[in-house]
Amino acid sequence: MANKPLLLTDNLVDTTILNRSLVLSNPDADDAAGREVWRVADNLRDLTSWSPTTTNVDRKILLNATAAAVNVASTIVILDRGHNWAGKTIVGEVSNDNVSWSTIFTSVIPATAGGLPGDANGCSTPEGVWWKGHGGSGSWNYVRFRFAAGGAGVAPTVTGLHVGLPYRSSELFNAPGAYDYRRAARFIRNEVSKGGVRVKGNLWRPRLVKIDITVDGGNYAAVQTEINRICDYNAPVWFCLDDSDTNGSSLLAMLQLPGDTEYVPEVNPYHRTVQLDLEEVIPQRFI
Question: Which long-range contacts (CB under 8 A, 24 or more apart) does 243-247 make?
Fold first, then answer.
């Protein structure tokens, strides 16, 4: 049976806009120049990255939440495409004193596409995104992601790290909902010569999704929290229509508002219909 759609708009490691009371750091303080740890939350996908200078040793991304302890229960973790950790080990750990650590997951990121987010090693998409849910619980003052020694000459490269509590829709989306069939084809270069020859180049094909859901009044507040982050902060949203099987899980996409947007939920005494158009963030180019 299909799962209901999953959305993640929060990101605990975004300490600039969404979670300003938290502090993100590389506790080993060996960021490479121009590849500082804050770049894992800049939402620029594989255009930027974090990487330390030291190779073949454990390196960590640390979230200090002493100002507002974070609940890790039911959160998901996403490494965006462009990371170099396929086939290598990542460990999620929590602590209240930054000394004694408890493990909430240990995963070897699949080197090929496949898997489910609920699997021990999570799911790798054909695009190269890795994501995983885990069995952690409780509120903690420190959360860290430890990249185990990756081999001679290897240091982790992390283009994007997203951690947060996803929203599981209370209802299936209104039809049609197969978002993998909707794409735009856009050319950065699209010119016609005097001879009538059209020259096109730099093709990019963003996936397009229409959030279209009808919810009763009791469930609307949770939906509105997600919409607020998208519309108020221009926050990206990770979206998976159905993560019940490997095909659906592989279609996880990072989406954003396409431009000027008016959000007008349809209201009647019993339910609200929420509709919002989104497009893929920095899709891969093909030509």
Answer: 243/3, 243/6, 243/116, 243/117, 243/123, 244/1, 244/2, 244/3, 245/116, 246/114, 246/115, 246/116, 246/123
This prediction's pTM? 0.93
CB-CB contact of 236 with 256 (8 Å): yes
Contact (Cβ atoms closer than 8 angstroms) between residue 251 and residue 125: yes
Mean pLDDT by 10 residues, the chain (287 residues): 89 95 97 98 96 98 92 91 98 96 97 96 97 90 97 98 93 72 81 82 86 85 92 94 92 94 80 90 78
Give the C-alpha separation, 196 to 187, whole Å: 18
3-state class of 177 per DSSP?
Answer: coil
SS3 (DSSP) at 168? strand
Give burial (CB, 10 Å; 0-12/13-18/19+) of 43: buried
